[in-house]
Amino acid sequence: MDFGYSFAGFVVGFIVGMTGVGGGSLMTPILVLLFGIKPALAVGTDLLYASVTKAGGIVVHHKNGTVLWPIVGLLALGSAPASLATVFILKRLTEQGVDPGGLITGALGVALILTSFAILGRSTIVRLASGPWFEPMRALHERHQTAMTVSCGIILGILVTLSSVGAGALGVVLLFFLYPRLPAKQIVGTDLAHAVPLTAVAGLGHAHLGTVDYTLLVNLLIGSLPGIYLGSNLGVKLPDYVTRPALATMLLLIGVKFAAPIF
């Protein structure tokens, strides 16, 4: 057992439990910036870490009827092929002697910036998508809802496979826009149900590429499980307007650091 990695898992699990924001946006930057793990290895390991930690949530949401499986299927119809295609591209780049590290860190930076905006603007997006101004476009929106859902799945598949970020916060925001009339608990349950197979497919793709550290994965899980439990209990006591802006600001700063080299 490596105490440093387990402690990192505990911290990320604690924050995830407290804020509800996916661990990918925190774990991958920590592994790269603090532990010096190569970006590809950090992303691959974090993807399997996310699929395991979130898997239990599917059972709970399914029992409560808060998973809309047809929507999950539409998202997966786009995300699974996109994830596999992204893995194939990464493999070809590696075979040709091209280091995909720059592409991965750039994608990570962009995904973190988008996630920070998603956290800060989620309530505004929900309000706009369900407001009266949206009514004239509702018929057009509903006519193309299926295609837009699959398209959003494609975007998430690419981003998550490259960066391990986006399956949580970005997925929720996109679903709120696509299905503004759904209750929040069904949005969250549906997003979680899609995030687990997406991170599993992407993680297994990285395992095929050899970019998963299984010892690191076990150490992260040892710390994250008690962290999520404690964070969930504290989260109900802290106001949302305190935790989310602080987290979003941190992710924005880290995202700018990663994305700066590509601009």
Considering the chains and any ligands shown, give keywords for the structure.
mainly alpha; 11 helices; globular; 263 residues
Compact overview of the structure:
The chain has 263 residues and is mostly helical. It is built from 11 helices and no strands. 81% of the residues lie in helices and 0% in strands.
Verbal overview:
The protein is mainly α and 263 residues long. The chain has one domain (3-262). 81% of the residues lie in helices and 0% in strands. The chain has eleven helices and no strands. The longest helix is centred in the middle third of the chain and has 29 residues, at 101-129. It starts with a helix and ends with a helix.
Specify the overall morphology.
globular
- For the record, give the distance between the C-alpha atoms at the N and C termini, rounded to a whole number: 40 Å
Number of helices: 11
Number of domains: 1
The assigned structural class equals mainly alpha
Catalogue the unreliable spans.
none
Main beta-sheet strand count, sense and barrel state: none
- Backbone CA Rg: 18 Å
